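Now for my pick.
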Amino acid sequence: MISGTVNRALIALLLASLVFVSGAGADDINLPDMGSPADAILSNSDEARLGRMIMRDIRRSGQVVEDPLVTEYINEIGSRIVAQANDGDHNFTFFAVDDERINAFALPGGYIGVHTGLLDATRSEDELAGVIAHEVAHVTQRHIARAIHANSRQSILSTAMMLGAIIVAAAGGSSDAVQGAMAVAQGTAIQQQINFTRTNEYEADRVGIAALADAGFDPYGMASFFEVLSRQTTTSPEMRAPEFLRTHPVSSARVAEARSRAREYGAIRSDDSTGYGIARMRIIVSHFDTAEEAVAYFEKRPYANQTDAERYGRAVAYQRSGQYWDALDIYKDLLEKDKSVIAYHIGLGQTLVALDQPRDARATYERALELFPRNVPLVLDYGERLLQLGEAQKAHAMLLDLMNNVPPTPEQVRLIARAASEAGEDAEAYYYLSEYRLMIGDLSGGIGYLQQALRLPELQEIQRIRFEARIDFIREFMTEEQLRMMQREEPVGTSARNAG
């Protein structure tokens, strides 16, 4: 038990030690070493494994935003930037974190997290893209591996103090003690890191601005957002500094340097996409404590004076408050103007189901599928509505087709497990739940669901062969302790519909 806690604490310490401190001048910028010794400390595959492990913990915490429209939009922006910044050595996954603080972060292995508070705070798509480009550059320039390499040169005394404090705290079983030990260890090493990490920040700005411009965004977007955040704190000292400034401190020199870099690319006209407005409105609605507050926010301005994005947000707020007829009118109005926006089709379909108009709802979704086959947010939402309407077989078939073509998230696997269960396909439901447990790092749980499937009397021989082979495969990755614990545990008789 202690060893697991220590491992998690060490990972957390690694991430804590990567807080990038700013303040250097332009003359501190150095190109990254080619063939850096960082490769010997942490390879790309090591980074990917570490990133997956941390990502599983973040998903388990429940903080990942499971809104397909928001997720798809952030990945679209991220993919545009990666296409210009990545040399092909890194895979990227972009996700939103349900946190109203203004922040974004990069994890090992190309996982880029964007707080919902950041999306809300940006004034344009260029500003959002600027922040994402900065985080992408931290990954492509291998700043995590390079930071570990720099830390490896610390004195034996520092390292011993750091590890000793964590182990003692972990042995005491106090999470507060572990956090305290990490803070002390970070404090002893920060002075040795500061020159190295200043360079990281400037390098991420430089590489990010180039990718921003090459992707068709305004290269001033990054400096613009930095400047706004910095000005807010300067003009209102009583305000707590945004989290982004705490993890990516911004000085006037850094803003000036970013503006100077942007001038090299000239002015690029970049209008906000419809996707930006939709994602931002969905976040704004979700941040209100009550549906009434959300509706009041959008009703402050007359409907005729609102942008289409604001009208969409108004419709989402009406849905949240149960004012479905009002939402229906807005979605019909928006679709008349632009049928290319998937979110409008989804909103109309959801509203028609809520108003108990299943025939019109199905027709809405089917028309949308003809326009946007295998679109992830559309198929997922239609699948959920079909389950509401009692059409589990169709939902299962449609979701299975999607997931055979697009890698699913853990929550999407839970959805197809529910569809299979409600369709009476219990063996497949247990199989999906097994995959869900594997995706969140629970190998024993994954085997447990497969064992439940093997006990089903109606199990087909081909299914039995597949499930037994899957169990053998999973066991190869389990420790001796995990195998012993699994043998001691009694099977859990949980239905596939409610499990996970």
Q: What stands out?
A: Residues 288-373 form a domain with the Serine Threonine Protein Phosphatase 5, Tetratricopeptide repeat fold (CATH 1.25.40.10).
